[in-house]
């Protein structure tokens, strides 16, 4: 019989006569999935595995985006920390901290005297 190749004889009586010639496609599909799941000792169906893989993929993407966002925020904070002393310094001593004038580092003595 054709059914003997699809389903194992120990679980389904393939030799029993069918009461009708109509086979419901949903039931047949479920039986086929159950057969292959048991044959390969699979715990979850293909749809569940695909959904789980999709979930893992989206979590990895979210983690990467979170790391990128965190690095951008840290770069902004580093910029603010670098700029912040310029707002609190005395105007005469601000020449010492000028990033465009590296030769002004030793001039604080001449400015104060």
Automatic annotation (TrEMBL):
This is Autophagy-related protein 9. The chain crosses the membrane at residues 50-77. It comes from the Eukaryota. Keywords: Membrane, Transmembrane, Transmembrane helix. It comes from Echinostoma caproni.
